[in-house]
């Protein structure tokens, strides 16, 4: 940190106050360029130690749960499945199944069971099969022409498997002794009440983290509940497979549900394209991560993968070696396997299926052998596999997306109401849940260390105030945050991190300290003012582009503007904290940046002594445009601004201009639960520098 002595020792630099108005470092901030998309590169760097990975694994798993709307997990109602219409196929049977994963939303599928297990006296391994984005899902019929082409290319052995590989896979597994549940993706085959990829693309869904991806993930969890509950299934020997979008479902469930013992995602794990459908994307999901790292969460359990001549074709050199390094940390290198068939296009053909059969036999049955898939006789898909008929019509309580979202919202509201802190223990649990969610929404926390700061300039002004500008960066990120530091003649080691929409221009105007900044400097407070993303010397050359069809395509890979600003504020706080001459750190947020201050204080904890924030009469609930710079996916789900203000308890906080923000009840309850009701002060007026200074120094 610059001291007055440092400045006096640098007269030869000839720097002027005007040097601080515009910084050339802004062009180096990668966030000012186009947002990352699902088609970019997502490398996975193997961790250096098992301990480092376990810490990362915990945080990443929480990220996936929050992103999919499953943090905390919704209550699981009894499934009460309907199982009927067994079709005798000789060595196995095919049954029709449907059950409600949530009230009024039904998961449908077919259950393939080996013959000869009456009454569940023999427990068999169970396998979930997710069909992916092939037309009509489990009803898929590729047609005579496509089936013949698959046979001609060598991808399939005969026309039946060329046309009906969706049936060949579970049929073979059942013949080998596995119980298989093949279930519908949302909006496919029999599960059509909510159209595929529809119903969740509006701002309200983003603010509540309601998504097709989240619903699909929840259905997968409930499908595993169903499979594991069957009397003939060994709940300790559960596997899952699927290709393409089904591969996404596979590695997602493997990452989130500890009950899976073996997994085989086909043609999906890649450092390339991450999944092109709405059902494979949602906000927050892949910010600073990617599919290979998500698949890695399954380590050290057996993970097999196949690749083809598609976005997965480089898996053997990009992704698989790093996964091997990770598994080697656990002494389990033999439990991860991958193979590419570059001569075939995007498909789950017989070669990949046979690799999968052997993988499941080895790791779920203890049989180390190769498998040649037998020929089979398919059934007529829609006519014979559909779960609904005259005796089993569609349930009368089946709901559409709008009604389903009403239930999701009410269920979430009930959960958050139960979490509302009433005592110290309740506050601790509230903070565990909501602070974790906020960390994921911002995709940052107070950095333990930062990249080496770059000093841009330093000077001693005619007023006697010392100034410097530095550029700060998170370790491992390509951000550059210009910060202006001002030390008055009465500097005491008490530093205010000053967050303002105008950035450095709010404290230095035409080479002079502004009146508002002077008020604080004259009390002995020093100032550090970061140009948060999009402000001051860090402005966007073009507005931040948000995908107009589905914001999850943008916020699934990039922090929102607000989240970036909070991350920048945390970076500035960490920088001040790292300096030996810092005694106390205060935080002041002006205008809309008062919200940034509250969120940063909630994540920084007691590193901050006092916080002053202008709430600017802001409510997340009022956001209507996904490109709004105040957008924060998930904010409303967890209670809005009041919920994040509650996380600041028992820290000293003064909020201004809070009328209409809805922050009162929850934040008061948190401060009362902390025994610190007097530490939260409210002032209906707009933030005033004089009053802020008086409050900070008293």
TrEMBL record:
Q: Which GO terms describe its molecular function?
A: carboxylic ester hydrolase activity
What's the domain of life for this entry? Answer: Bacteria
Q: Does the keyword Lyase apply?
A: no
Under InterPro entries, the record lists: AB_hydrolase_fold, FrsA_esterase, GCE-like_dom
Q: Which residues form the 4-O-methyl-glucuronoyl methylesterase-like domain?
A: 175-273
Sorted alphabetically, the keyword list is: Hydrolase, Serine esterase, Signal
Quick check: keyword Repressor in the entry?
no
Q: Where does the record locate the signal sequence feature? A: 1-27
Among Pfam families, the record links this protein to: GCE_fung (PF22244)
Which PANTHER family does the record match to this protein? ACETYL XYLAN ESTERASE DOMAIN-CONTAINING PROTEIN, DIENELACTONE HYDROLASE DOMAIN-CONTAINING PROTEIN-RELATED
For this entry, the protein name equals Alpha/beta hydrolase
Taxonomic lineage of this organism?
Bacteria, Pseudomonadati, Planctomycetota, Planctomycetia, Gemmatales
């Amino acid at each position: 940190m610059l001291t007055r002595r440092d400045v006096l020792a640098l007269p030869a630099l000839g720097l002027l106050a005007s040097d601080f108005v515009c910084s050339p470092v802004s062009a180096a901030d990668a966030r000012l360029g186009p947002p990352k998309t699902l088609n970019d590169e997502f490398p996975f760097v193997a961790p250096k130690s098992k301990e480092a990975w376990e810490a990362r694994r915990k945080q990443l798993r929480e990220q996936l749960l929050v992103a999919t709307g499953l943090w905390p997990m919704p209550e699981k109602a009894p499934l009460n499945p309907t199982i009927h219409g067994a079709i005798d196929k000789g060595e196995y049977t095919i049954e029709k199944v449907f059950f409600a994963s949530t009230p009024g939303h039904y998961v449908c599928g077919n259950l393939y069971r080996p013959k000869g297990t009456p009454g569940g006296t023999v427990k068999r391994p169970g396998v979930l099969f997710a069909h992916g984005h092939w037309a009509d899902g489990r009803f898929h019929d590729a047609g005579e022409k496509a089936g013949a082409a698959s046979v001609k290319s060598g991808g399939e052995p005969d026309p039946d498997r060329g046309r009906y590989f969706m049936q060949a896979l579970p049929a073979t597994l059942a013949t080998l002794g596995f119980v298989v549940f093949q279930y519908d993706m949302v909006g496919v085959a029999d599960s059509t009440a909510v159209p595929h990829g529809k119903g969740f693309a509006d701002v309200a869904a983003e603010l509540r983290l309601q998504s097709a991806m989240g619903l699909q993930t929840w259905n997968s969890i409930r499908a595993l509940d169903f499979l594991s509950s069957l009397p003939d299934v060994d709940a300790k020997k559960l596997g899952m497979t699927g290709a393409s979008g089904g591969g996404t479902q596979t590695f997602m469930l493997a990452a989130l549900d500890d009950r899976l013992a073996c997994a085989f995602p086909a043609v999906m794990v890649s450092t390339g394209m991450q999944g092109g459908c709405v059902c494979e994307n949602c906000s927050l999901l892949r910010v600073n991560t990617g599919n290979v790292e998500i698949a890695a969460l399954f380590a050290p359990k057996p993970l097999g993968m196949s690749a083809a001549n598609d976005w997965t074709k480089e898996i053997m050199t990009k992704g698989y070696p790093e996964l091997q390094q990770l598994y080697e940390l656990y002494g389990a290198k033999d439990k991860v396997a991958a193979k590419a068939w570059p001569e075939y296009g995007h498909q789950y053909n017989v070669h990949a299926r046979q690799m999968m059969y052997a993988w499941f036999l080895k790791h779920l049955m203890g049989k180390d052998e190769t498998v040649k898939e037998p020929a089979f006789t398919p059934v007529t898909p829609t006519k014979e596999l559909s779960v609904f008929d005259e005796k089993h019509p569609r349930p009368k309580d089946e709901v559409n997306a709008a009604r389903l979202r009403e239930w999701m919202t009410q269920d979430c509201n009930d959960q958050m109401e139960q979490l509302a802190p009433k005592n110290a223990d309740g506050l601790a649990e509230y903070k565990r849940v909501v602070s974790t969610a906020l960390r994921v929404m911002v995709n940052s926390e107070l950095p333990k260390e930062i990249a080496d700061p770059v000093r841009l300039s330093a000077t001693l002004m005619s007023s006697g105030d010392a100034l410097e500008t530095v550029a700060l960066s998170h370790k491992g990120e390509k951000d550059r945050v210009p910060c202006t530091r001002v030390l008055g003649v009465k500097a005491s080691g008490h530093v205010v991190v000053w967050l303002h929409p105008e950035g450095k221009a709010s404290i230095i105007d035409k080479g002079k300290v502004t009146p508002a900044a002077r008020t604080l400097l004259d009390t002995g407070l020093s100032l550090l003012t970061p140009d948060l993303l999009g402000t001051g010397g860090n402005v966007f050359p073009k507005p931040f582009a948000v995908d107009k069809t589905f914001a999850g395509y943008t916020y699934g890979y990039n922090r929102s503007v607000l989240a970036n600003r909070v991350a920048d504020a945390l970076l500035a706080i960490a920088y001040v904290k790292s300096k030996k001459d810092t005694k106390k750190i205060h935080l002041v947020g002006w205008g809309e940046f008062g919200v940034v201050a509250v969120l940063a204080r909630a994540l920084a904890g007691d590193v901050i002594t006092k916080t002053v924030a202008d709430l600017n009469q802001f409510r997340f609930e009022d956001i209507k445009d996904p490109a709004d710079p105040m957008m924060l996916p998930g904010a409303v789900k967890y209670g809005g601004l009041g919920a994040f203000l509650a996380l600041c308890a028992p820290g000293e906080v003064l909020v201004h201009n809070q009328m209409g923000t809805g922050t009162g009840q929850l934040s008061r309850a948190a401060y009362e639960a902390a025994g610190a009701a007097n530490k939260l002060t409210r002032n209906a007026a707009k933030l005033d520098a004089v009053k802020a200074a008086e409050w900070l120094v008293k």
